[in-house]
Structures are given as C-alpha cells and as structure tokens.
Specification:
Layout lengths: L5 H24 L17 H7 L2 H34 L5 H9 L6 H15 L5 H25 L4 H8 L4 H12 L1 H17 L4 H4 L7 H11 L3 H24 L2 H6 L3
Helix pairs in contact: 1-12, 2-12, 3-6, 3-9, 3-11, 6-9, 7-8, 9-12
C-alpha cells in the first residue's frame, strides 16, 4: 500500500483545519461571558447555554426537530430497506427509473423542493400540518438511507440466506434472522445520517413549517434575523456536540469505515 508523502499529509491537514476552524470558533464563542460575539479572553462561562434552555421557543423547537427527525428517519428506513432489496436483487422493467426516482432528491435544490411542497400543500389544504412536514423530510432523507442499504447489500454473502432457505425457513424468517442482522450497520448508519440531515434541514423547512411546527434550524434563522448574540453560538455548539456524539456512538458500535466506506 502506497503511503502519503509529507506534502500530501500537509495538504490534508490544511484542508481539515480549514473545515474545522469555523466550528472551533463557534464553540469557543459559545463560552464567552460577554454580550457580543467575542472569543472568551479572561474567563469561560455557561451563561449562554443556560439562556438556551431558559428560552421556551428554542426548547419547543428542539422537541419538534427531535420528533420530526426520529419519525422521518424511521419511515425512510422502512421505505429504503425493501426498495434496496428489490433494486439490488431483482431485474424488472423500470428498475433503473425507480432507483433514479428515489435518488432524485439529492440533485434537486432544497429551495426548489421547498417552493414545490409549499405550493402542493397549499393546493390540498395541508399547510401547517406536522404529518406533511414529516412527509417532506422523508422524501429528502430517504436517498441517504437507500445508498447505505444498497452498499451493505452489494457486499453481502448470500450463502447464509440460501442455507437458511434450504433448511425450510420462509423468506420473512430469512430476512429477519439472517439478512437484516447482516446489513444492520448499513441500516443503522442510514437511519443516523437521515436523522442528522432531517434535524439540520433549514432551506426546505422554512417553506413548509407553521408557527406550531417550527424546527430548531428555522427558529435559529428567525432569531438571527432579529438579534445576533452568543446564544446562537451556544445553540450551534449544542447541535455540533449532538452530531459528534451520534457519529462517535455509531463508530463505536459498528465502525464508520464499515458503514460509509464498506470495509469488512
């Protein structure tokens, strides 16, 4: 295996530093005791983190985002797993079109999707409904689950499934006892990535949320248009920490290399 030279390692380090530097700055600003967006110089304070939890709008929006992301990711898994099995293992008319249909939200700007959903929901009288908000999020996060499920299925050794069927197991039993456990890293990784993308979604959600279903990113955007203070940095730091902990847990349980790269 060819190793990277010092120039390549330096370039990679600079790229990583360029990507992480804004996140580090935001996290540091969140601990400032001042009233403005400044780096803490003399002391660190949890003042703005307490302010977040004392702000009822942010607490409600966090609950909305948590429920929305959980439900949307779970429904996406329920759709992507059978769709992935059908696309991976069967040849039927329209197979490529079906695969393209499921993956099409990846290439459509979320701004366009938001306007389209707003128009659709207005026509059918579904504006402001949490169920339709869930549906819109399911559409944009399902491709992430499907890609990971397909990746898990592509490297699956089917000999265990065939052995179970020759011993008299039904197709459902084979899926439940053999297939599902073998592709569980792909399913779990897809669910988590769908959860993160749904939780962080802003552009499309602006068009389809109502005052009763405002999500946390939308609430942050609304707050930032009225006032800019370190509380925004504190909320952002909490979201960064939540995402980092989720990815760390996934790495500890399954390994990100197995889920995202496909290594055995």
């Amino acid at each position: 295996m060819q190793k990277n030279g010092p120039v390549a390692l330096l370039f990679h380090a600079l790229v990583v530093a360029f990507v992480l530097a804004p996140l580090v700055v935001i996290c540091l600003v969140a601990f400032t005791p001042e009233n403005t967006l400044t780096m803490p110089t003399t002391a660190f304070s949890l003042r703005w983190f307490r302010a977040v939890f004392e702000h009822p709008d942010f607490v409600t929006a966090f609950g909305n985002s948590l429920w929305l992301a959980t439900i949307a990711a779970s429904i996406s898994v329920a759709i992507a797993v059978p769709a992935g099995i059908a696309i991976d293992r069967y040849r039927f008319p329209g197979r490529d079109a079906l695969n393209g249909l499921f993956l099409s939200p990846l290439i459509i700007p979320h701004l366009v999707l938001g306007v389209a959903f707003l128009r659709l929901f207005a026509l059918i009288g579904a504006t402001g409904s949490f169920a339709w908000l869930v549906l819109s999020h399911v559409i944009i996060v399902t491709p992430y689950v499907l890609r990971l499920v397909l990746a898990a299925l592509s490297g699956l050794d089917r000999s265990a499934e065939q052995a179970a069927m020759t011993l008299g197991a039904s197709r459902f039993t084979v899926f439940r006892r053999v297939t599902a456990p073998m592709i569980l890293p792909g399913i779990s990784g897809g669910w988590l990535i769908a959860f993160i993308n749904s939780f962080d979604e802003l552009t499309m959600s602006i068009f389809v949320t109502s005052p009763a279903t405002v999500t946390l990113p939308v609430r942050m955007y609304m707050y930032a248009t009225e006032s800019i203070d370190p509380m925004m940095a504190a909320v952002s730091a909490l979201m960064i920490a939540l995402t980092a902990l989720a990815m760390l847990a996934l790495d500890r349980v399954f390994g990100l290399d197995k889920i995202l790269v496909g290594e055995k």
